[in-house]
C-alpha cells in the first residue's frame, strides 16, 4: 500500500495535479515523497486538481480505491455543466 501511495503521488505530480500549489508547498510535497510521509501525501491528494488533465481524471479512481481501503473519506468531485441554469 505504501508504494502505491508514493507511485500515485508521483503520477499526480507528473500529471500537473499540484500545479496550483505554491513553490513552498511543492517543495514540501517533493520532500514528503523522498521521506515517504504517507499522511502528508494523502492530505495532498485532497487538495489536488483532478481535472487539470485527462491523466489526473484517470488517477482519481485509483486514489479513491486506496482511500476507501484505508478507511479515509473518498474524494468527491462534481463538475458543473456550463449549460445548466
List the topology elements:
Blueprint (H helix, E strand, L loop, with lengths): L1 H13 L8 H13 L2 H10 L6 H17 L15
Helix pairs in contact: 1-3, 1-4
**Structural Rg:** 13 Å
Shape: globular
Global structural class: mainly alpha
Low-confidence stretches are none
Into which percentage range does the β-strand content fall? Answer: under 5%
Per DSSP E runs of 2 or more residues, the count of β-strands stands at: 0
Tally of structural domains: 1
Characterization of the model:
This protein has 4 helices and no strands. It is globular, with a radius of gyration of 13 Å. It has one domain. The chain has 85 residues and is an all-alpha fold.
What is this structure, in a nutshell?
Helix content is 62%, strand content 0%. The chain contains four helices and no strands.
